[in-house]
Design goal:
The protein is of the alpha/beta class and about 550 residues long. It contains 17 helices and 26 strands. Helix content is about 35%, strand content about 20%. The strands form eight sheets. The protein has a five-stranded parallel β-sheet with strand order 5-2-1-9-21. A five-stranded parallel β-sheet has the order 11-18-12-13-14. A four-stranded mixed β-sheet has the order 6-7-8-26. The longest helix has 25 residues. Bound molecules: flavin-adenine dinucleotide.
Length: about 550
């Protein structure tokens, strides 16, 4: 029996140790303190009405920190689920299943007590189309319903993210597949499988014996040209998204296409285009060089200093830097083109900024998002408060994540930390403006960056020196190869939110490495809109319905 006791003690020690380590690593001691000091919460007669716009990284981490006893929460987003962006490239190649990296937003609202509508908290699938700061109301629209929903708030959190930037390059919006939403990953996967089947038929036609007639010669020439075009896949943007997609496609071709379409795999060419001089520009130059070499070794062509200037349904036109300030135009025919060229503010963010006025729209500078203070309060709103309002200067509109201009990079890491910070601040101060004034400003913790390069290779640049580093790498640790891949997988895995997703993703990884990726395409998908269009501006018509109080709630 003694060994049973010892084994139990060891298991308990390891579990508690791991939990303590996780709490420290995630900076969650404040949450533990809050839970302990609020074990028996007093029932409030009036809860603070919080409206959150968005269901992404920033919104979700914010919601998770709120105290359901004190808050009546309404979440509005066109997307009814949270989606784990870092694994999107893996869905396009079939390494992970798209349903493994999404989770319903309603799961996170459950603790705000059920049934949800009766508790006053709820989720509405739709888009926020305007905000009335004076009356503290937002309007949201759902395409199938011609009535607008108006919700009132005490505090509004804007976490609407950003959309793909096309830099107004002609043809990009109409022809490229974007790498932003889960639909894009699904569509891309289907498109790739469709192209492979199309190419397979063309290849079979090329094996039919020649008749020697002029028509036959012409037809064969056209077929060969089309086959070459179809199997040229262009990825635009050498940031982490473009690099990881290229890596995933390389893996797919080497491991799966080579098995099921052996006659095609050698003819597939992936080209990664980057406008600046190097890929993974935000990483250490040593990493960029290593990443480029690895992708090229795996069969991709990497073209740096190549800026896309135009796109048609068949061709990409480039301006290629040839050195010493000179450039030349090159045209690439393609069968598949994916755009991973950066992000820009959503039109609704601009509309909100216009409502607020000049402080939000500094003249002469392009609009990048909502300007916020060091606690994420949206700037320039003081003039819009009603003079009669006691809380004239009190911040009650916040913006976090990619839609906010806060000095942080547009990453999930930053959005997650911002949501956590804002949620904790409003919870710990109980929405009291004086306490908010005294609360410490946000400080971003940059832990580092990683990218997958294919064939179980990766790169990681971590903050701090884990061991003796060469002086020129000062202050950071660079890891390349399989070690970085192992770190990349473990970190991405540990950051998945629910245990259900963790189980699904680990199963997908196992399935892909043992049985191969899925090469069936059961869907007949239409391309998702490149950039979701804003519904027509709503008029203050009699159709407007105000939902300020929860139904059935006193
Ligand atoms: P999002 O997560 O984009 O969420 C915005 C939400 O707002 C969505 O739910 C959207 O539906 C909703 N919304 C939009 N319009 C409205 C409206 N009018 N009304 C209400 N709601 C609205 N970052 C990393 O740190 N590491 C990575 O490895 C990484 N990989 C990435 C890979 C890909 C393919 C992509 C696209 C991004 C990646 N990023 C990564 C960046 C990261 O995903 C973003 O920085 C992060 O998603 C920003 O979070 P957010 O909450 O601000 O916006």
């Amino acid at each position: 029996m003694r060994w049973v006791r010892r084994a139990t003690a060891a298991a308990v020690t390891v579990t508690c140790g791991a939990k303590l380590l996780l709490i420290t690593a995630n900076d969650e001691w404040g949450d533990v303190y809050y839970s302990l000091t609020n074990l028996w919460p007093t029932k409030l007669t009036k809860k603070t009405k919080v409206v959150v716009l968005g269901s992404g990284w920033a919104a979700l981490s914010f919601i998770q920190k709120l105290d359901p006893e004190k808050v009546e929460l309404k979440v509005i987003s066109p997307r009814s689920f949270f989606f784990y962006t870092p694994l999107l490239a893996g869905t396009a190649s079939g390494t992970v299943c798209s349903t493994s990296i999404i989770e319903p937003i309603r799961w996170h609202l459950e603790r705000f007590s059920s049934p949800l509508p009766a508790s006053g908290s709820d989720f509405f699938q739709g888009e926020c189309t305007s905000i009335d700061f004076l009356h503290k109301q937002i309007t949201c629209t759902r395409h199938e319903i011609d009535q607008d929903l108006v919700l009132s708030y005490d505090h509004l959190v804007i976490a609407i993210g950003a959309e793909p930037a096309t830099f107004n390059i002609p043809g990009v919006r109409e022809n490229a597949i974007f790498m932003k939403e889960i639909e894009n990953g699904l569509y891309l996967q289907n498109k790739i499988l469709e192209i492979l089947e199309h190419a397979n038929t063309l290849h079979a036609l090329s094996l039919v014996p020649h008749t020697g007639s002029d028509d036959d010669v012409k037809q064969r020439f056209e077929s060969e040209k089309k086959l070459k075009e179809l199997l040229h896949w262009v990825v635009i943007g050498g940031g982490p998204t473009g690099v990881e997609l290229t890596a995933e496609l390389n893996d797919f071709i080497r491991n799966d296409v080579s098995k099921y379409f052996p006659h095609l795999s050698d003819h597939i060419q992936i080209t990664l285009l980057e406008a600046t001089g190097k890929i993974l520009g935000m990483f250490d130059p040593k990493i960029s060089e290593y990443a480029q070499k690895t992708l090229v070794d795996h069969g991709a062509r990497v073209m740096c200093g190549s800026a896309v200037t135009k796109m048609t349904s068949k061709e990409v036109e480039l301006k290629k830097m040839t050195g010493e300030g000179s450039s030349e135009v090159e045209i690439l025919s393609y069968g598949l083109v994916v755009w991973a060229g950066g992000i820009t503010a959503r039109p609704i963010a601009k509309k909100i900024a216009e409502t607020i006025g000049c402080e939000q729209l500094p003249p002469g500078r392009p609009f990048r998002g909502l300007l916020v203070g060091n606690k994420f309060q949206v700037k320039g709103l003081e003039s819009l408060s009603a003079p009669s309002e006691k809380d004239l200067n009190h911040p009650c509109v916040w913006a976090i994540g990619d839609c906010a201009v806060s000095g942080c990079p547009p990453t999930a890491q930053a959005a997650f930390q911002q949501g956590n910070y804002l949620g904790r601040m409003l919870r710990d101060t109980n929405f009291d403006s004086q306490l908010i004034d005294q609360y410490r400003p946000f400080e971003m913790r940059h832990y580092g960056a990683m990218a997958y390069l294919g064939a179980s290779q990766g790169v990681a640049e971590l903050k701090g020196m884990l061991w003796d580093q060469p002086a020129e790498e000062g202050g950071k640790t660079i890891i390349e190869g399989t070690g970085a891949f192992a770190l990349w997988r473990s970190l991405y895995f540990s950051r998945l939110l629910s245990n259900r997703n963790k189980a699904q993703v680990i199963f997908d990884w196992f399935k892909a490495s043992v049985f191969g990726r899925d090469i069936s395409s059961p869907y007949n998908l239409h391309p998702p809109p490149a950039v979701p269009s804003l519904p027509p501006a709503s008029s203050p018509s009699p159709l407007v319905v105000a939902v300020s109080e929860a139904p059935g709630r006193k």
